Amino acid sequence: MAKTFSKDDVASHGKGDSLWIVIDEDVYDVSKFQDEHPGGKKILQRVAGKDASKQFWKYHNEGILKKYKGQLQIGSLDTKKQAEPAPAPAPAPKKAESTPQPQASGDFKPPATAEPQEPYGDLIPFADPSWYQGYSSPYFNETHAALREEVRQWVETEIDPYVTEWDEGKEVPPHIYKQMGERGYLAGLLGVKYPEQHTPFRVQSVSPDRWDLFHEMLLTDELSRAGSGGLVWNLIGGYGIGCPPLVKFGKKALVDRILPDILAGDKRICLAITEPDAGSDVANLGCEAKLSEDGKHYIVNGEKKWITNGIWADYFTTAVRTGPDGMNGLSVLLIERSEGVSTRRMDCQGVLSSGTTYVTFEDVKVPVENLIGKENGGFKVIMTNFNHERIGIVIQCCRFARVCYEESIKYAHKRKTFGKRLIDHPVIRMKLAHMARQIEATYNWLENIIFQCQCMEETEAMLKLGGAIAGLKAQSTQTFEFCAREASQIFGGLSYSRGGQGGKVERLYRDVRAYAIPGGSEEIMLDLSMRQSLRVHGMFGMKI
Ligand code: HEM
After folding, report:
1. Please, which pLDDT band fits residue 63 given cuts at 50, 70 and 90?
2. How far is it, in rounded angstroms, from Cα 121 to Cα 234?
3. Residue 56 CB less than 6 A away from ligand 1
4. Residue 222 has pLDDT above 80, yes or no
């Protein structure tokens, strides 16, 4: 049991070499810490022996306590009520016979009645999707609520307190990626039914038969609450786009050989499409793969640029040219790290811990068995993958926009200027309102698109939803950019310097471009959204 102290005990450690302070009825020994306190020693000495909660919350956010609690907390005040132990996330109950439930395939049926879930989280309006706040939703049931709790606990304890350090150090410790595998999360992020046959790992709170695209969305969403594009891209930026083509279009022997280690988090995979001279116009890719004379290998030569996770990757799902110019000469090859493959880290503006990489292939021998899809049929593989990639980007942008909004609204309730809290200034409320309306519009469109994907076969979705997903991608990156900017204005200088209370906003502001450009730039997305939608609706018999 934790130690308890009276107020007098704390007061007797108010000066000299022994400094204790109280924050929210917990007692901290800051004697040794005072010399390294970034805010200065004197400021701690002034509140030593006393309750410093008010001063603490003025200058810090929750992350600081989480990070330093283990090191500095020595107990609690004897007046503090004991908190109930938090229950472990319970596996969601098996599905009831009478309630139609989602399947991760084309037979998804929405529940006949949409019971609201228990309210969850801080209940700040618009800081979480509305179903977190007790509003009804046709898409989310108790399995989603259980997953949300499971992921949130993990992110808040194992990730949140360290994310700034990792971003600055440009790397996330490998054990976090390994946990993604062991917790069954990697297996759940492929945009297909949970691949039970290729992994012994299971998500604790959702059984494989109930796993659907809304679980996948929720997992990415909750990871994004850490407010770091670098973190999310480190964990799923290579895997989430590099692995689905292998699973959907790879030959069985290849998939059986390499997928289990990838799903376990032991091996890493990335997607290598973009080149120094070809990005959104994938039909013009030049990286060349020539069949060897004996027909057993492709010999690959070329360069790939801005490849997320490339420096750590064991496998590269790579777009290569095997035929004539244009989209009908493209293929996709699974290239294993081997002789002739070199990777170097690129220095970028944002997503610092994502490992953006320049890759060179020099006479790399790739067995023909590693062809993903058909020879010269790579364009379809790449296009199918784009929908999944772009939806992932949208989910992240939506949550990052919410993080900017949430941080701002919390800060606006404590920071005072001209004798009033920021939230009491109409100009600040106006900023928050514009953020909220864009976030909600984007998110509700996203839910609808996920629902459509859940109801359609992959090829049908590629065709029918490609335009809308492209438009939504642009909508989400512009929402994210807007919210990062407005949040930065609300935080002022605190979001100009790195770390501290405005740290998440400062970091996300730097991450914005990493979302607005890759996966199809805003300009190309908006144009595609009209071209593709008009084309498809023309096929449906649009009357115009
Ligand atoms: C458990 C006790 C405390 C810990 C672990 C702690 C930790 C930190 C850390 C890590 C920072 C760097 C900025 C950040 O990352 O947020 C910081 C800054 C600061 N701290 Fe503390 N602190 C503690 C208590 C206090 C108290 C009681 C006060 C005031 C009486 C205080 C005043 C400040 C100030 C003024 C700054 C600079 C803020 C800025 O740069 O805007 N700290 N502290």
Report:
1. confident
2. 26
3. yes
4. yes
| Residue 60, ligand 1, Cβ within 6 A | yes
Q: Which atom of ligand 1 is nearest to the CA of 46?
A: 30
* Residue 108 near ligand 1, beta carbon < 6 Å: no
Indicate the domain borders of the chain. 4-77, 142-376, 386-540
Over range 266-289, report the average pLDDT. 89
pLDDT of 92: 53
Is the C-beta atom of 30 inside 6 A of ligand 1?
Answer: yes
Local confidence band at 282 (pLDDT 50, 70, 90 cut-offs): confident
The ligand 1 atom at the shortest distance from the C-alpha of residue 494 is: 41
Query: Which residues on adjacent β-strands are paired with residue 229?
Result: none
Atom 31 (ligand 1): residue with closest C-alpha?
56
Token pair belonging to 135: 């509003």
Indicate whether residue 37 lines ligand 1 (CB < 6 A). yes
Average pLDDT over residues 346-366: 96
| 369-420: pLDDT as tens digits | 999 999 999 998 998 888 999 999 999 999 999 999 999 999 999 999 999 9
Using one digit for the tens of pLDDT, what is the confidence trace for 25-48?
999 999 999 999 999 999 999 999
Q: How far is the CA of 495 from the centre of ligand 1 (A)?
A: 16
Architecture of domain 386-540: Up-down Bundle (1.20)
User: What does the pLDDT look like over 85-131, one tens digit per residue?
Assistant: 655 555 554 544 433 333 344 455 555 557 788 899 999 999 999 99
DSSP string, 169-205: HT---HHHHHHHHHTTTGGGGSSSS--GGG-S---TT
Q: How far is the CA of 14 from the centre of ligand 1 (A)?
A: 18
**Ligand 1 center to residue 404 CA distance, Å?**
21
May I ask the CATH class of domain 142-376?
A: mainly beta
Instruction: List, in sequence order, every residue forming a beta bridge with 420; answer none if it has no partner.
Output: 417
**How far is it, in rounded angstroms, from Cα 10 to Cα 382?**
63
**Contact yes or no for 315/257 (Cβ under 8 A):** no
Q: Looking at domain 4-77, what is its CATH homologous superfamily?
A: Cytochrome b5-like heme/steroid binding domain (3.10.120.10)
Three-state DSSP class for 320?
strand
pTM of the entire structure?
0.89
Sign of CA dihedral 121, 124, 128, 131: positive
Here the tokens at position 544 are 């115009």
Q: Alpha-carbon distance 63 to 162, whole Å?
A: 9
CA distance 117 to 131: 7
Nearest ligand 1 atom to the CA of 67 is: 5
Give the nearest ligand 1 atom to 73 CA.
1
Is 4:25 a contact under the CB 8 Å cutoff?
Answer: no
Ligand 1 closest atom vs CA 164: 15
